[in-house]
Amino acid sequence: MTDTAERTTSPSTDAVAEVRAWLEESWDPDLTVAEWWERLGLAGWAAPGLPVNAYGKGLNRNDSVAVQNAIAEFGALGAPGGLGLLLAAPTIAAHGTQEQIDLYVRDIVTGQKAWCQLFSEPGAGSDLAGLQTKAIKDGDEWIVTGQKVWTSGGQVADLGMLIARTDPDVPKHQGITYFGIDMHQKGVEIRPLVEMTGHAMFNEVFMEEAVVPDDAMIGGLNNGWAVANTTLMNERAGLGSGGGHAAAGAATPGTVVNDLARRAGDFVSTTGAPKRRGGGSAGGMFGASYKLLVELAKGNGKIADASVRQDLMRLHTLNELGRFNNLRAKAAKAIGQEVPGLPNISKLSMSEIVRQQRDVGLRIIGPYGTLHAYKPEDQKSLNDATGNPFTAMVTGMSLFAQAPPIYGGTDQVQRNIIGERVLGLPKEPNNDKTAAFKDLPKNA
Predict the structure, then answer these.
(1) How far is residue 212's CA from residue 112's CA, in Å, rounded to a whole number?
(2) Closest CA to 150 of 137, 167, 131
């Protein structure tokens, strides 16, 4: 019996049992958010997928998600959300020095600092290596000038993951360096971009002689393309289908929103379920999931339409494929292998899922799909007009569905990567690998 039990106990079961026992001893809703996140982060449970030397537990992705869901099910405030935990921490853990890990990652897992991603530019979106933001060495500092765009969470960020051109005399992929930049300095200006959803999740960022210390360079001089690719792979895995739910807390990390001083228990409901902020965030858009759409179809009789049932089944199938791909990745990692191109496939799959959610969702709610609450104060009027409080979620999801196929690397970029790097198809002829960046033609 003992042998059987040992064979059937999975690592995720062990980790979940361990975190539940820890929560029994450690969770205190009367702690401030800062106090609770420090306790959670320094124990390794805020980001259990990080290495042990980077304030993690070294768990794989599936086990990490199981732990995070266990924290939410327990009724405790989840880990700090945002791009710090999703992107910056694993990148710095992989490429940073131990001093940088202790400086940056510690503040991420404890929620002290929020991060944003300063990658895309008006003339360098899909061709990210064509970026023109420049960083010029000045003693022990770098002076940064340029513009970034589509910066998620820039308005609440303390630090930014910045890639800038540090050598224009070498091929474009070779002259890029990755920095951590202070967003609270006079040389940085953040302007919100209002989307067609009515919200402003993205920003454009202007840097005019912004200053970055030399010790904020991550991964070495002119090695930024390799470091950035680590960030991008984590982004694609995090945004891809089958990734599960991070179960991050409703409180916002960092110094801007001022949640750190609030009571941790105020961010979980009396039933133990984590509260969520309103406002149409990406997570809220994707909350209009398969199960909700099925219930809406049942409620208004659209479930009787065979084509609607077929589309719902297609959506269910896409979600299941994403889940199975995640299990494939876990099984491969367990034997020291990886599935080539799987993060890119997952990202493409998520694009298809949100398009399918959009199309079937709008078919289910019919003419009400032409109405949307563009501001929070419009929500009640929309609910009264439609008699359905879920209409705004469906229309918000439908409007937002145009974004995932673009951000995090467009669908076209993902297909190019799969074709060229995984399938070995020939690349389009160019001299990007040999010509100096300064000699390449630039977008107008």
Answers:
(1) 20
(2) 131
Backbone angles phi, psi at 324, to 5 degrees: -65, -40
Bridge partners, 210 (sequence order): 144
Q: Which residues contact 227 (CB under 8 A, 6 or more apart)?
A: 91, 95, 163, 178, 218, 219
| Type of residue found at 199 | H
Instruction: Return the bridge partners of 204, or none.
Output: 149, 191
Rounded Cα distance, 131 and 120, in Å: 8
Q: Copy the structure tokens of residue 51.
A: 């290495």
Can you list the residues of the chain whose pLDDT is less than 50? Answer: 1-9, 244-247, 272-273, 276-288, 444
DSSP state of 395: H
**Closest by Cα among 305, 324, 272, 365 to 78:** 272
HSE on the CB side for 321, CA within 13 Å?
16
Helix (H, G, I), strand (E, B) or coil at 282: helix
d(CA 54, CA 34): 19
DSSP-based three-state secondary structure for 192: strand
Distance separating alpha carbons of residues 144 and 127, to the nearest angstrom: 20
Are the beta carbons of 175 and 226 closer than 8 angstroms?
Answer: no
Instruction: Count Cβ atoms below 10 Å from residue 413 Cβ, excluding itself.
Output: 18
pLDDT, residue 354, reads 92
The runs of H, that is alpha helices, within 192-253 are 224-239
Look at residue 432 in the predicted model and tell me its pLDDT. 81
CB-based contacts of 93, cutoff 8 Å, min separation 6: 50, 51, 53, 54, 56, 101, 105
Q: Tally Cβ neighbours within 10 Å of residue 25.
A: 7
Q: Which two tokens stand for residue 409?
A: 């690397």
